[in-house]
Amino acid sequence: MKYYLFILTILFLFTACKPTSNIITSKNVTVKKGIYSLPVLGKNTILKVKKNQNEYTYQEVKSVPNVKKAPKLNDNNESDIVIENEDSNYLIEQIINTASYNLGIAYRGGGITKEGFDCSGLMYSTFKKFNISLPRSSYEMAEIGKLIATEKAKKGDLIFFINRGQKRINHVGMIVEVKSDEIKFIHSSTNGGVMISSLKEPYYEKTFKQINRIVE
């Protein structure tokens, strides 16, 4: 009887000492269970885990290079229009550029598109892009704006002519360059389409009539 009581006591003690939960004794197991987190070695260091079956190993990866600061914005662009003197302004430069995009387009009576321009049509369509409304004919254009002496002409001014055999203004262009002894203008000519000519050319020197300022 005492023998059986001894055996029962031993079994009771063994059962009482049996753990009620699993004891984790390996770091690999803690990683697997999500209990253990990877150590942080620094903001520029990365650790990666390689899993081989149930084993986890750690490998240090090369430091992350410092991110370079973005360069400062450069506000000086080569394509910017530089206003060198008070005789020029941004709006006039843009009007001249717009007209110049049509260089080489053929002359077309009544034309106001890239399919062809007449002289007043080129001026009318160019200024219209900047919400500046001009009359449709060169004669009517000569009636608006401010009359300017030749020696005070500036880029953007309209220049008018009376072709031979005519009694009133019938041709218009826009001044694109003024030098001390020369005025150049863009216009649509019946002979060459949209082109740049000089007031020093004999034909235009003889047919020149006046200059009007539309944009101050």
How would you sum up this structure, described in words?
The protein is α+β, with helices and mostly antiparallel strands and about 220 residues long. It is about 25% helix and about 25% strand. Strands 5-10-6-7-8-9 form a six-stranded antiparallel sheet. Strands 1-2 form a two-stranded antiparallel ribbon. A two-stranded antiparallel sheet has the order 3-4. Strand 3 and strand 4 form a beta hairpin. The longest helix has 16 residues. It starts with a helix and ends with a strand.
Strand order of the largest sheet: 5-10-6-7-8-9
- Fraction of residues in helix: 25-40%
What letter string, H or E per element, gives the SSE order? HHEEHEEHHEEEEEHE
Low-confidence stretches: 13-21, 40-51, 53-58, 60-87
Largest sheet: 6 strands, antiparallel
The helix count comes to 6
Structural class: alpha+beta
Indicate the proportion of strand residues.
15-25%
Shape: globular
Q: Cα-atom Rg, whole angstroms?
A: 44 Å
Total strands: the figure is: 10
Produce a short descriptive summary:
With 216 residues, the chain is α+β, with helices and mostly antiparallel strands.
